[in-house]
Please model this.
Amino acid sequence: MDIATTARRTLLALLSIVFCGNLYAAEIQVAIDFNRDAIESREANRPIVALLTADYCVYCEIVKKEIFQHITADPRIILRELSIDSDTTLIDFDGSQTTPRQFARGRQVTFTPTVLFLDTKGQSLADPLEGVSTIDYYGFYLEKRIKGSLEVLQERS
Model:
């Protein structure tokens, strides 16, 4: 194993401890009802972090495995996944029915993975995190946007 791989694994383990308190990697909860998530977000003053993926996206699987499965229990956020090529029923923030495909189109998301940082009305709290330039810095970029989202929510409170 090379030094970069060892460093990346060490960083991910540390992030897991910081975010979760343990090394347990859970499945990411699929978005079903953003209206219900918004209630939880409002009560706990936490941003909704929506990971938009696609079935054909290899990089989506990498970030899910390397990053997101380790932060599913992060108490600072509500983490949800949407597959932009899905036509299953999704309840939007206003209570209307939509699909993950329509939800993504409405936000001009065509590239995966894309991470949205949303408030209780579905409005953006931080710039989207689009694509994967390098997995080594992905966690840093994600954390920066999570912290920014939390700061915006704090300012609004």
